[in-house]
Amino acid sequence: MYVPYNQISSDARVWIYQSDRAFNTAEKTDIESQLTDLCNNWNTHGTALHCSFQIHDWFICLFVDESKQGASGCSIDSSVAVIKAIANQYNIDFFNRLNIAFLDGELTQVLALAEFKKQLTPHTVVYNNLVSTKSEYESKWKVPLSESWLARFAD
């Protein structure tokens, strides 16, 4: 069941899917519709999941309040199927973990790890897609390079 983002628990689990390119306005509108449908029909063993989402230019972020009902493997697989369908529809790659997202001033950029390593500085702000809850998403999603798993490349 879709829950507005501002009403979902701060402990809600999050899955972040990073695109290899920015979405255009029409794509964002359609993706929002598809994610609303996912949330309104997403369940685990017949029990509705309390869920929400956010769409950013380069990201889809799905949230499930597992204090209401935990997401099972099958339910997670069904959400991944929706993400894969969106990827196929728009020729987007959400699953290349060697693409690194970072802020270049106010703009998000995504580069292959090898290219990113050439441009990074200790002050580079990166997206930490490994956050696991809404609370972490809000406070630790965008962090200085030194606070992320990418810090090992700064030497």
Report on the structure:
This protein is an alpha+beta fold. The chain has 2 domains: 5-90; 99-153, no CATH class. It has 4 helices and 9 strands. It has helices at 25-41, 73-90, 113-119, 134-140; strands at residues 13-18, 43-44, 47-48, 51-55, 59-64, 99-104, 107-112, 125-127, 142-144. The strands form 3 sheets. Strands 7-6-8-9 form a 4-stranded antiparallel β-sheet. Helix 1 runs antiparallel to helix 2 (73-90). The longest helix has 18 residues, at 73-90.
Number of helices: 4
Gyration radius, to the nearest Å?
A: 16 Å
Main beta-sheet annotation? 4 strands, antiparallel
Based on secondary structure, the structural category is alpha+beta
N-to-C CA distance? 46 Å
Residue share in β-strands:
25-35%
In round numbers, the mean pLDDT is: 92
Number of strands: 9
- Tell me the series of helices and strands, N- to C-terminal: EHEEEEHEEHEHE
Integer tally of domains: 2
Low-pLDDT segments, ≥5 res: none
Shape descriptor reads globular
Q: Can you list the strand order of the major beta sheet? A: 7-6-8-9
Kindly state the percentage of residues in helix: 25-40%
